[in-house]
Design brief:
The chain is an alpha/beta fold and 255 residues long. It has helices spanning 30-40, 53-61, 76-87, 107-118, 135-139, 192-199, 205-210, 214-219, 240-254, and strands at 5-9, 24-25, 28-29, 45-50, 65-68, 94-98, 125-131, 145-148, 154-158, 182-191, 224-228. The chain has a single domain (5-254), classed as Spore Coat Polysaccharide Biosynthesis Protein SpsA, Chain A, CATH 3.90.550.10.
């Protein structure tokens, strides 16, 4: 596999859990767990992108490279686009977005999404998915669903249960038809040129309605490849309950 970079967007001012990157999990700040996942992926370079000096100081304390970015960014992809601009990386540079609230994302997923992008010329953006396992998961708006075409290119992402069978098509008793519904995982690989194109686009109405940044790529005619994740991710951290869940998960791993 060709070399790739990882940029970790780490916003201090998260609305639901302020100071999130600095919250301790198993005795270490969450951002350090995410940074270690990036290192374990085999990335040639790992950068933490943040708008806040406290996050930058913490990151530097454990040896991370930091890129200071603006406080105005709507999404992590916008923040990474600023890093691309600051670094003047060539358009064919492969960058993985490992979000700063994913301390349990398996390193193999980071490497796989980069590999998938490098292997294809049909799309300048790649991401991963995994099957939806339960009706509860399908109906959960916090679980993002994706529908793909026969070439594994995304048709649409939504918080709604798509595709929707006109007769219902599922029940809590009948179970889930295997492979019909796919859960999108919030990890991306991009070529730097695609990030420059993304930054030149205004946020679109589907993106704002769904609160899904990947829809801006699709709105702008930029294709997204969706591959199978080789490993199931753990929980992202958005709330205090998520923090406790991930703390328990990492505690079991180290026991």
């Amino acid at each position: 596999m060709m070399p790739f970079k990882v940029v970790i967007p780490a916003r201090h001012g998260a609305s639901r859990l302020p100071g999130k990157p600095l919250r301790l999990i198993a005795g270490r700040p969450m951002i350090q767990h995410v940074y270690q996942r990036a290192l374990d992926s085999g990335a040639a370079e790992v950068i933490i992108a943040t708008e806040h000096e406290l996050v930058a100081q913490m990151a530097r304390s454990f040896g991370a490279t930091v890129c200071m970015t603006g406080a105005h960014h709507l999404t992590g992809t916008d923040r990474i686009a600023e890093v691309v601009a600051q670094k003047a990386w060539p358009d064919d540079t492969v960058i993985v977005n490992l979000q700063g609230d994913e301390p349990t994302m398996p390193a193999v997923n980071v490497a796989r999404v980069a590999e998938n992008l490098q292997a294809r010329t049909t799309a300048p953006v790649a991401t991963l998915c995994t099957p939806v396992g339960t009706v509860e998961e399908l109906l959960d708006p916090n679980v993002v669903k994706v529908v793909c075409d026969r070439d594994e290119l995304a048709l649409y992402f939504s918080r709604a249960p798509i595709p929707w069978h006109r007769e219902g098509g599922f029940s809590h008793d009948a179970g889930m038809p295997p492979g019909l519904w796919l859960r999108h995982l919030g990890i991306y690989a991009y070529r730097a040129g695609a990030l420059r194109a993304f930054a030149a686009l205004a946020p679109c109405e589907p993106e704002l309605q769904e609160s899904l940044e990947q829809l801006r790529f699709q709105w702008g005619g930029i294709r997204i490849h969706v591959g199978d994740a080789p490993a199931l991710p753990g929980s992202a951290v958005d709330t205090e309950a998520d923090l406790a869940r991930v703390e328990a998960h990492l505690g079991r791993q180290s026991a």
